[in-house]
Structures
1.
Amino acid sequence: MLSTCLVSPWLLAKPITVQVKDAGGEAVKDAVVWFESKQLPLSANTLQQAYKMGQKDRAFTPHILVVPKGAEVSFPNYDSILHHVYSFSSAQPFEFKLYRDSPQSLNFGNTGVVELGCNIHDWMLGYILVVDSTYFALTNGQGEATIELPDTPIDSLTMQVWHEGFANLDKPESKTFKMLPTSNALIYQLDQSLFKPKEDFSDEFDDYE
């Protein structure tokens, strides 16, 4: 979905709220929205933020974590049981074997979707989305994500949208703006239908002390 109107560079100087809707017009929660442009300066605060993907009550928390490329992510275990975190995703394959009290950490230097699992608790599922941007947010229950963009000249801006219900998790949807949106409230309707998230198949006896 691309706009085609070309104009001279314009200034970004306001927060933009994007509401994501599904193919049926319903608000979509937990969609990831981010903006990319070669002219957007990176936010040092966002790059240096302490990112955490914890394990609590035998689940990944948060379920979806968005980080900029190059971010350091720690994996604290808040449970009293052991976890064994791993990913086979091409963007960042890794494995943290059985651990509980010593937090593990990892630098995420490649963009893409990193799907997480636990080798002990098979139902545990989480995602780390690594993006080439420091301007991103998850949508709330009303399908809205608000992103503060810097005051900088720009002549092209691409909005990317991702959801765990996409058929191909490695392909976000996108829209490129060649002119400044006339409103700071945008509506984006997904081109594809969403698959339902996987269900929780937890087993109270499937614990390692």
Note: The first strand starts at residue 10 and ends at 12.
2.
Amino acid sequence: MGFMAAVALVLGIGYVVVVFIVEPLRLRRRTGASGWVASLGATTAEKTASAMFLLGCGLELSNPALVLAGFALPRVDFPVAVAVAGAGLSVASVVLAAVSQHHMGQSWRTSIDPDNAAPLVTTGPFQVVRNPTYTSLLANSLAIGLLVPTPAALAAFLVCLWALQLQTRRVEEPHLRRVHGEDYQRYARQVGRFLPTIGRVSGFGR
């Protein structure tokens, strides 16, 4: 369990470094903007989603860290093959996030920027799901749980899922509808939110 916890912690930290540091720096070199946006005027929904997301990430990374520190957390004993699959899923999630951020270019931002409307991106991974970066976040959270299967891992995944659902449904999708109108609505009818075909919308406000 200690080895798997070490692998999980390295992969979890690696995901954060690649997605939130390396890729934004590469974006800054290409476009002059890193995508980091201060959400000073964030709504209550956005603030809540951000807080819950940070909580989920904290649970996700503290789970293997506590195991490495010697805490005897309740856990499920999965076959080694499940842990190997988790490691592979984590690596794949990093690749998906990096590819998604590359396709977004200047449209990738850490928060809604009401003063600078970004183009609607529907190419690459966005042809399959509307939020591939969020899909990668959830996949990485699931991967960490497969490597270190404890109640904390399940809680981390559920909190992250709740946070991303709130962020997309209450913050980002209404913004995209206001900015892109029928173009976004047509796109949302055809492409799923986090998984292919799942989360497609048939009308405004859903």
Note: The radius of gyration is 17 Å.
